[in-house]
Amino acid sequence: MIQTGTMTKEQDSFLARWDPRCKLTGFFMLMLSFALVRNPLLLPFMAVTALLVFPLSPVPTSVLLPKLRLPGIFVLVYGVILVFGSGTTVLIQVGPLALKAEGLLNFVVIAVRLFSILTLATVLFASTPITELTSAMQSLGLPLLLADMILFTNRYIFQLAGDMQKTRYAARLRGFQGKSLASLPTFAYIVGTLLVRSHAQSERVYQAMTLRGYGQNRVPAGLKRKTTKQDLLALLAVVFLSTVFVIAQTLL
Amino acid sequence: MHLPDGIVSATVAAGGYVAAGGLTWGTLRIVRRENEDPRRLIPRASLLTAVFFVASLVHFPLPPASVHLTLSGLVGVMLGWLSFPAIVVGLFFQAAMFQHGGLTTLGVNACLMGIPALLSHGLFQLCHVFGRQKKSVNAVLGFLAGFGAVAISALFAALLLIYTIPEHLDAVSEKTAVIALSMAHLPVAVLEGVFTALLVLFLLRVKPELLETRK
Known about the structure:
The structure holds two protein chains of two kinds. By secondary structure, chain A is mostly helical. Chain A has helices spanning 14-17, 20-36, 43-56, 64-85, 101-126, 130-139, 144-173, 184-211, 229-251; strands at residues 90-94, 97-100. Chain A contains nine helices and two strands; from the N terminus they run H-H-H-H-E-E-H-H-H-H-H. In chain A, a hairpin with a 2-residue loop joins strand 1 and strand 2 (97-100). By secondary structure, chain B is mainly alpha-helical. Chain B has helices at residues 10-34, 42-55, 72-79, 83-98, 106-124, 127-130, 135-164, 171-184, 186-206, and strands spanning 59-62, 65-68. Chain B has a two-stranded antiparallel sheet with strand order 1-2. In chain B, helix 1 packs parallel to helix 5 (106-124), helix 3 runs antiparallel to helix 4 and helix 3 crosses helix 5. The radius of gyration of chain B is 17 Å and the shape is globular. The chains are: A mainly alpha, B mainly alpha. At the A-B interface, helix 2, helix 4, helix 5, helix 7 and helix 8 of A face helix 1, helix 2, strand 1, helix 4 and helix 8 of B.
């Protein structure tokens, strides 16, 4: 598990410095325009765009490939259904199984879209700390309640993951194996204990925060920086690129 | 059940965002109306969101593979209307931290998992009819809430995948794929149901106020 905004190899890259509001809007528009692509002719352009953004970002190359593993498995399973069940033009026939051209094409479109969007998402999350992302989303209209939930959740995730690891380690030291379904009740009690303990702690933290004035300042924190011309120009460039993809998909 | 980026079209992704945005707005409005100070719910909601996130890291052996829990049913039982926004936040972190799901599919995934969580909440409220303190009632409703959340999510996901993407998929393959995708989730749904029931019984014994959705 990796915290957002911490995978930068050099903090002074433009993507790390880009105003989070502009970056979030631009990246999101580009990702949605990629999701729109269905024409195979546009696939190389989409993949190249993603591959060009990646070296501009402060994200090390070693970060990207492991991130493709989990969604890649899902797409592969879905791909099997597509290539054998979708279409009429048979490419290869092996016994009752027939590999079909239309299904294969659908699968390639989905796989390239996944790679391109995931590359952009990795760059976005790795170059922006969660506090900046939340502030940017809040200034773009995210409700205060939801913004606070994101910040509190960010804190609890690491605390709970650590507590869970310690509790499971302690259980293992007492002989608990946890390698069969018979261990389900023990897991339930471990999670229940963590819930009860963490809840009491979260209530105390909330009360302490309220005493220190939490909830009085309703202006998004962390947005003191001003949007520069450079930020806006970069956003315009990305919006233009997204529009090109949308128009190309519509016309082709 | 977490649809990754690129698998649904932009129309479906945008539709998912519109639906999830509307549901988030609606559920937050109800939470604000039902609670004098809704901010008081934030620590518990965030804690449950973190549990929802961390649960996906814990794998159980279910031969021939291993599976992870989602706990969306439990989130529904414990958070009520706030479960939908909580699932949106949890999915956002899952997409941001280890690409479980995706950013363009966040709205779709939120609907796939959040609506069943709301249904689980509604189902669990039946314990007020059948006996709030009865162990058997809590166990049965806890199981149904956990089981139902996963089963309905899996069914929604299978239907969405099959009916929105492949243009040339033939009817027989379509039917087989929906059945296969749904049936593959059945053991996970049973596991989730048992886990939720055990956890509900534990909380009923140790801290029953955690099962109340209003403050």
